Amino acid sequence: MDTTQSEALTAMVAVIGLFLFMTLPALIGIAHERRTDRQIRRAEAANTAAERGDAPAATRPAGGRPAKGAVPRRTARAA
Questions:
Q1: Membrane spanning segments where (predicted)?
Q2: Largest interatomic CA distance in the chain
Q3: C-alpha span between 40 and 37 (Å, rounded)
């Protein structure tokens, strides 16, 4: 490999690196938006199912008890 080929290889690697550097934030944003959209669709489906009264067993509280692993919320008291 002579000097011209190594310079071309270095330039090509630099261009590909800059391309990835410029597009990576956009790709991360797209993935985040897709995840958010899935969560919104899932919440809307659970909401409409709860309004109809046929919520799946996973979303219904079992016997009115809090979900497993749920942390009890306590209000602060003045001293």
A1: 12-32
A2: 80
A3: 5
